[in-house]
Amino acid sequence: MLAVSTLFAILSVMAKNKPYHHGNLRRVLLNASLELIRETGLHGFTLREVARCAGVSHAAPYRHFQDKADLLAAIAEEGFDRLIEEMRAAASKAKDPVARLENAGLAYIGFAQDQPDRFAVMFTTQPEEKPAAQAAGARCFAELVDLVTACQNAGQSNDISPRTAALIAWTQVHGIAELALRGQLGFKTRKELMEFASKATAFANIGYRKRKAKQKAAKITKKN
Predict the structure, then answer these.
(1) How many CA atoms, within 13 angstroms, populate the side-chain half-sphere of residue 149?
(2) Which of 114, 133, 147, 187 could join 192 in a cystine, given CB atoms 3.0 to 4.6 angstroms apart?
């Protein structure tokens, strides 16, 4: 009897050598996986079921993914890149560094609300085993560090390192996002959630704003 690993290797080779008519198989497989995650959870399906849901042969997924973990890592990688885009878009709507940071935080929470299945995969996979997903997560955190650094460069905070400040900001918005998805914050509507999130992020940045106010007052006093 063939070992499971050997069988998977054979299927992978067969799938790669066999012509396939689908225009974008990888995209179809990712979408099918997200649909199954929505229905059964992260651990409730197999690659065979992904193939069935996508309407392709059982061997087809092996054209792009070695196994289920590889597929989930691809979903996570794509998710982080999309999150970066949304954080950047939200931040670009403001000029003040603190407002840009707050907007990015709200975009993070909004992303989790809009794409809960993808969000779950992003923080459930083992990134150290999948370098591409790990790199995407690092890029996302680097985006947050850049936003914090901009606040510090504007003279609004220099008390702690940018990385530490970014970790504080991340744990806050991630905590809100996770608790909201689990229904543990008690808000009945998205509007209520986002209003709370806006207050929470503003409260967390009081230190930044106080420093800015002191600097402004100092400049006025110096001119006078």
Answers:
(1) 7
(2) 187
Answer yes or no: do 60 and 94 share one domain. no
**Both ends of the chain: CA-CA distance in Å?**
89
Range of the domain at 31: 4-66
* pLDDT attached to residue 171: 96
Q: Do 48 and 127 reside in the same domain of the chain? A: no
User: How do residues 108-159 score in pLDDT, each as one tens digit?
Assistant: 999 999 999 999 999 987 756 788 999 999 999 999 999 999 988 887 656 7
Say if residues 59 and 7 touch (Cβ distance below 8 Å).
Answer: no
Same domain, 82 and 184: yes
DSSP state at residue 189:
S
Tens digit of each residue's pLDDT (9 = 90 or more) over 52-108: 999 999 899 888 899 999 999 999 999 999 999 999 999 999 999 999 999 999 999
**Tokens, residue 120:** 């779950």
Rounded CA separation 145/39 (Å): 35
Looking up residue 102, the CATH number of its domain turns out to be 1.10.357.10
Task: Report the share of the chain in percent with pLDDT over 90.
Answer: 64
Same-domain check for residues 209 and 131: yes
Q: How many domains is the chain partitioned into structurally?
A: 2
